[in-house]
Amino acid sequence: MGRPATSPSQRGLLLVEAGLCAVVIAVGLVFISRGLANQLKALRTVDEYETLLSLAHGKLSELEAQRLAGIPQPPGRPEGSFEMADEASSTSEYQWSVAAVRREDLDVDKEGRPIFSHITLTVRREGDDRRSSAVSLSAIWPTAWVPAEWLN
Question: What residue ranges in the chain does DSSP mark as E strands?
């Protein structure tokens, strides 16, 4: 049988254990802080996507309402911009544009012209941090609603 440890060796062992605990805690805190930073970045990305999607839905609904009301589309390229103030009291500019393609595969009239067109509304934001984001929504509209400027 071995002898029980003396008091000075126990103190040295406790000092090594305390040092190892400090190292483990420090490494754990580094990984936790990195994980939190990544989660914050992901939340900002989701928030940006939700903003773009909301603007796209609103603009598409506005364009559909104008067409249903018989309001003619102004001449020129179908594009524009939104300006919004965000939480940081800075303004962000979002651009939108519309493109359309006639869909002959869906249905044609008696003269062989397509009855429907596939439109795509794209809303994008050019970021200050050299990062841009965009969302596109698509819909099928009657070709009579689609001005010639929208067609690719």
Answer: 79-85, 91-108, 114-126, 132-142
